[in-house]
């Protein structure tokens, strides 16, 4: 009975504004919302971006069946929580399966809504591709630290694209190879958003290069990454410096800057 009650309570708090009652009168199906027509909603092995993508749902896809969601927030508790407490809740992830039961996986609950609330006629999902960036290490000249900074950024993108487990994910098990210990505590829950400024990636990393004006100012290095994601071009800026908290004092990332927000 406790297991059944836990499942019922998990279903009681839906991914977005709509809520399902624990007596079974909640939505019978869900649809994908907030995903661009050329994008896809990744379905992962577990509830978080650190888990491997095992399937995809198309933008606007309807008839999805909800199995359960985390965190587990009973309706009575949710209603008693302050706005600040609600805002402090971690991102909601839901285990979903397609209408024909052929696909399943954990998805970010922010991209789910009660089926029929926002009708969308969207095209089928398309696979992602990474591409090979142009990395001219000679632009670092005789600056070995700047060269290492470019290599760290290059290797970070390659490692994230090829990661299959938490252990080899550069935001988790392999994080010390890329990030300074100063920001290690902020890495959890991040990944594609830091690298692509988006949940998912379908495009190319075009070029990785040092800042022309201030490539290395007293050990503070700046490396840019030009990329195109779902047809939109953007530039990601990495700041790096040596991390004396790690053995060998290696060059590591301390900040990633996107238009409108910064990860540090």
Please, could you describe this protein's structure?
The protein folds into two domains: 2-114, SH3 Domains (SH3 type barrels), CATH 2.30.30.40; 134-263, Nuclear Transport Factor 2, Chain: A (Roll), CATH 3.10.450. It is α+β, with helices and mostly antiparallel strands. It is elongated, with a radius of gyration of 21 Å. The model is unreliable at 1-25 and 118-131 (pLDDT under 50). The protein is 17% helix and 28% strand. The strands form four sheets. Strands 8, 9, 10, 11, 12, 13 and 14 form a seven-stranded mixed β-sheet that branches. A three-stranded antiparallel β-sheet has the order 4-5-6. The protein has helices spanning 2-12, 75-80, 83-87, 144-162, 192-196; strands at 30-32, 41-44, 53-57, 65-70, 93-97, 104-108, 112-114, 134-135, 203-210, 216-217, 220-229, 232-242, 251-258, 261-263. It contains five helices and 14 strands.
């Amino acid at each position: 009975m406790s297991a059944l009650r836990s499942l019922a309570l998990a279903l009681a708090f839906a991914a977005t504004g709509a809520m399902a009652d624990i007596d079974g009168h909640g939505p019978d199906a869900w649809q994908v919302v907030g995903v661009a027509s050329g994008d896809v909603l990744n379905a992962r092995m577990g509830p978080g971006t650190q888990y491997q993508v095992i399937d995809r749902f198309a933008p606007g896809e309807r008839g999805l069946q909800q199995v359960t969601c985390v965190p587990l927030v009973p309706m009575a508790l949710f209603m008693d929580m302050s706005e600040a407490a609600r805002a402090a809740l971690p991102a909601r992830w839901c285990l979903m399966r397609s209408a024909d039961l052929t696909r399943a996986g954990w998805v970010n609950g922010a991209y789910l809504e009660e089926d029929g609330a926002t009708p969308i006629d969207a095209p089928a999902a398309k696979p992602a591709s990474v591409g090979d960036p142009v990395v001219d290490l000679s632009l670092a000249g005789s600056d070995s630290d700047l060269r290492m900074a470019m290599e760290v950024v290059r290797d970070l993108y390659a490692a994230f694209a090829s990661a299959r487990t938490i252990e080899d994910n550069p935001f988790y098990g392999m994080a010390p190879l890329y990030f300074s210990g100063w920001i290690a505590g902020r890495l959890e829950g991040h990944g594609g958003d830091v690298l692509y400024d988006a949940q998912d990636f379908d495009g190319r990393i075009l070029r990785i290069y040092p800042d022309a004006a201030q490539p290395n100012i007293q050990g503070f290095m700046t490396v840019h990454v030009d990329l195109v994601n779902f047809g939109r071009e953007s530039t990601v800026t990495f700041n790096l410096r040596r991390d004396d908290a790690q053995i060998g004092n290696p060059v590591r990332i301390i900040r990633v800057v996107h238009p409108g927000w910064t990860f540090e």
